[in-house]
Amino acid sequence: MVKSRVYYKSQEFHGLPKLSDFKVVEQEVDEELQDDEIMTEAVVISVDPFIRAYNVPVADPIIGFQTAKVLKSKCKKYPVGSLVLQTGGWQTVRKSKGDTIWYKVDELLSDKVPLTATVGALGMPGLTAYIGFLKICKPKPGDTVMINGCGGAVGNIVGQIAKIKGCKVVGCCGSDKKVEFAKSIGFDAVFNYKTAKSWKDEIAKIAPDGIDCFFDNVGGQLSSDILGAMKMYGRIAACGSISTYNDTEVSKASVVQYNVVFKQLTMQGFIVTQFKDDFPAALKDLGQWIQEGKLKIQETVTEGFENIPQAFIGMLTGKNIGKAVVKL
């Protein structure tokens, strides 16, 4: 038997998670493998907003992405020593038939691509940015693109892709440091939504002619105000609603149907796994842009398995710039 450390909730979250809401359970993993099974050990753990949104029961391990090394294998596709991106949750060692693996990441690594980027720019966040923006927003050169949460894991990549595609890129985020970061990677104009006196006024300043494409990571009233500034036939990719994940009461925001109807907007929610067939092409483009210096990787890295909850809470409160990751 091999010992694995696994994170569970010690109690249900109420509002923003606390460190006392988490516990580590030591479990034994049988080393004997059946055909097509593999045993992996995590080397990088990802902390993402969707983990709070899905809010698994106390009895279940906490979900999430990890990059892991294959320790033992009876699966030809994933030989010993391979590095894989998988939905392995917050645990060290696990055994599976490979059904939780997204893809091998060995070939993605280079002097410009650190291992941590396999759960970020070349992992779920990068794919979400690429696919959600290009397939749903369908940008054209010269379009004005608005991204809220633009200093986070997905938002900053959407902004950089929009610049690559010849768009004017504007956004908002929750700190002055994130504003500076967004401008440093090419955003044309950004405001701090936490210090702004009027979101509508700030939106009008950075996009005086209106918005063609809106990539929504935040939800709530801020998103409703942005929808009010859309141009006719604008396109919206609804990716997340992080502003509401910790709410203890039903969130309220202005009605958006008036703008959706009379501006004839197209708004689509999506989960990136519905576009799995597009993953190879997306990874090829993202990797090429990184090598060419057109797409910059930004991460906030925490060290140590014991610090995963702290990194998770920090991400939910906006302490990270770019992707929040934990190295083991």
β-strand number: 15
SS summary, helix count: 9
Beta-strand portion reads 25-35%
Q: Ends: how far apart? A: 21 Å
Largest pleated sheet = 7 strands, mixed
The whole-number mean of residue pLDDT values reads: 97
* Low-confidence region ranges: none
Written overview of the protein:
This protein is of the alpha/beta class and 328 residues long. Strand 12 (230-238), helix 7 and strand 13 form a beta-alpha-beta unit. It has helices at residues 49-54, 124-137, 155-164, 176-184, 199-206, 220-227, 257-262, 279-291, 308-316, and strands at residues 2-9, 22-29, 38-46, 66-73, 83-86, 93-96, 101-104, 144-148, 168-173, 189-192, 211-216, 230-238, 266-269, 299-303, 323-327. It starts with a strand and ends with a strand. The mean pLDDT is 97. Strands 3, 4, 5, 6, 7, 14 and 15 form a seven-stranded mixed sheet that branches. It is built from nine helices and 15 strands. Helix 2 (124-137) crosses helix 3 (155-164) and helix 2 (124-137) crosses helix 8 (279-291).
